[in-house]
Amino acid sequence: MELHYDNPAMISGTVDSSGMRMYYTSTAREYDAGILTFGHDITPDQIIPPNAKSFTTTAILTGECTEAILPEDGIRVFGNFLHTHVVGHGLTVQHFRKNPECDVYEELEPIDRNLQYDFNYQQITHLKREVVIKPVSVVYLCAGIIISWTHLYYVQGDVVQLKCFYGTEGVDGVTLGGLSTRNEMCFTFLVYYPAVDFQIAISRIESSALRDYLKSLPSGDQIVNGTEIDYSKLNTVDWDVDKFQETVDESMQGAFCRGEGNAIYRVTKFPEIGCPYIAPDQCTTEATEATEGGVVLRASVALLLLLSLLAATLG
């Protein structure tokens, strides 16, 4: 458990009267639940330009991680906790799976999404249905026709991607990643079972890619000195938000995960989507459900009337 206090106005005399109630049972449940911490590395390299109507930070949980750490049957996610700070206004947890019919990745239904996020109202969301994250997406056998041979072919595990959307209109200066409320974070906490030793998964733009971009700016020589970035000089930049967003999205990413005795680091790019997810038309779906419900109701009423007539006749 973590309890954070933030008192920027230095108000005195405030007393915390919150608390918690814990329960225990002498009968063990069938499964232990776990929480997977996943998001963008907490670093000032997470740069959000000022006066941006919308800017996106993305984190990736790679297929190498899910393949190496998850159990054979995968994990079942049943809840989630989304987290950014005060300039965050939306998050979505995307789910990708290798699919030969899509050439690359198929985008599945989002695991969780909140596009009206409010820092002051954070909560664990219980998902409408459990989501299975798999360690191996596809397993199939290739057989030769002319020459007799077989080959077992498998595709690495599912990929999970977290997108955090920020708005900094009216904000003076850049917002950097960090622990303070006045900095920013991009994290999600997936609640799942059965619990495994999957401790954390984080990613960030490769430092060399970020330095190269900053060096290309008119004041780049003052911002970057060798491998060091002077973050205080970022407020002197005349930010091209679209160009910087493109750089962050298309650059190589350093992705790290740890669990089950494994610590895996990969330099990768965000997945290429061959089959994007298309959300069902909510109005059509609701109308269909209402119509089907109406048919069932009318059938039930007709059956009751028929039974009543039979009872009256027999009586």
From TrEMBL:
Signal peptide: none annotated. Gene3D superfamilies: 2.60.120.230, Copper type II, ascorbate-dependent monooxygenase, N-terminal domain. It comes from the Eukaryota. One of its GO terms (molecular function) is copper ion binding. It holds the Pfam family Cu2_monoox_C. Keywords: Disulfide bond, Monooxygenase, Oxidoreductase. Residues 31-137, 154-213 form the Copper type II ascorbate-dependent monooxygenase C-terminal domain. This is DBH-like monooxygenase protein 1 homolog. The lineage of its organism: Eukaryota, Metazoa, Porifera, Demospongiae, Heteroscleromorpha.
